[in-house]
Amino acid sequence: MRRHILASTSVLALLLGGGNAFAGMDEAKAFLDKEIGDMSSLDRAGQEAEMQWFVDAAKPFAGMDIKVVSETITTHDYESKVLAPAFTAITGIKVTHDLIGEGDVIEKLQTQMQSGENVYDAYVNDSDLIGTHWRYQKARSLTDWMANEGKDVTNPNLDVNDFIGKSFTTAPDGKMYQLPDQQFANLYWFRYDWFNDEKNKADFKAKYGYDLGVPVNWSAYEDIAEFFTGREVDGKKVFGHMDYGKKDPSLGWRFTDAWLSMAGNGDKGIPNGKPVDEWGIKVDDHDRPVGSCVARGGDTNGPASVYSIEKYLEWLKKYAPAAAQGMTFSEAGPVPSQGEVAQQIFTYTAFTADFVKDGLPIVNADGTPKWRFAPSPHGVYWKDGMKLGYQDAGSWTLLKSTPDDRAKAAWLYAQFVTSKTVDVKKSHVGLTFIRQSTLDHKSFTDRAPKLGGLIEFYRSPARLQWSPTGTNVPDYPKLAQLWWQAIGDASSGAKTAQEAMDSLCAEQEKVLERLERAGVQGDVGPKLAEEHDLEYWNKDAVSKGNLAPQLKIENEKEKPVTVNYDELVKSWQK
Description:
CATH class of the largest domain: Alpha Beta
Distance between the termini: 45 Å
Number of domains: 2
Number of strands: 13
Number of helices: 24
Shape: globular
Oligomer: single chain
CATH topology of the largest domain: D-Maltodextrin-Binding Protein, domain 2
CATH superfamily of the largest domain: Periplasmic binding protein-like II
Structural class: alpha+beta
CATH architecture of the largest domain: 3-Layer(aba) Sandwich
């Protein structure tokens, strides 16, 4: 759905409590009074100083019309409906902030990258494209931009180091190519009330010989899924797992958004494995992709990857509602909130606002949740030092094909909607955190009990193990679309897990080969390696202190381990 938000002068005056449009600080003060108040990491004097900077920096661009675009989520809806009109009133720069589907954002971005025509003046696109932007060099390096052409429109109070996702948008050349605007993680979700029920605890201990708790590994997750599936809780039979399986583009997100990393695919490394990442793509010492298949030293079709697909298929069939196999991402998302699911190996924390609504069967009468978030369990191939899950980081991107004056005006808007003045309030609306100063704000300490562990997780050291797709992926749009088709073949039964991943890695290498032949990414583009067997590449990896591709573990059902949720949170706070 596309929305064109461009408020008229009268609407802006009404929104901001009267006064003339483009009155600069008068409008800014009205905005701070009406919308921000003390929901900011800056005091009132700091807010006004930051707004004064925007008023002054925007003067050369007053009256300009710019267009920016993002996907449709709550955070961007707030930016489009509230912050864009406010920015226009304060600066005189007229902003149309379009909201469209995530796939449509990528399509518009690709069109501009390929044609050189200025479709939008700035894009909020996932930092999953960092490898794409760095290799194609179609996006401005923000590091260079802030130091040179964009210096006069770069907020001295931007504080890049305050952004918790800075490493996600920094390429191997050490430069930052995107500015995070919103972030959310994929976390384990479970019914805290059911896990603390004395009868459930006693029955589980009697059957499995260990305590019911947050599963640390997949073996425990599997036991918990089995235990709850078909069990009567609160007067109805429930399920121990939830997922989705329809052959649809959203099925690819389930896996590129780091299902394989939980299993133990790839190498150690934060934010992503090196030299093999969680997609199974290997790079050489110069960050050139050399392969995806095990035959070239990759891990997309290695034992860890195949194990992850097999477990996905097994759990979906055994422990999830039957309808889940025919669901898409958007259809499956709300199901746990209906009160019949005990746990989910990961759900997007962007759903948090939908999981805490009054009246839901998963919310107590006092507004506190009956559920909690916790770190996702890991598979048998996972080792300490690996990433453990995915974090989405929608980030502002300026393409080189956008004229400088338009890019400067758009950069001002990007900084406004991520500024310390507005970020605390914006984060309360969308719960998609980008700044440490926001996470530290007292208002989130106060609100934490109603957010099911979200704040505790984001304030903990554990969050470092959650990261977006990294720089090993040389062309995210081309490669990401291959995943749902391969996984869909496995989900439908058309192929085994091994056959599906063999097909996927081969298709990924066809793309790498085309990029290599075309030479469009210069001396950091793909350069495919010679082919050898799994044993050869495993021995080569181990000799260099790496892991991937790992050899198959014969007994993939390891000893199950759980941890008490409340003790886990206490350990973070220490």
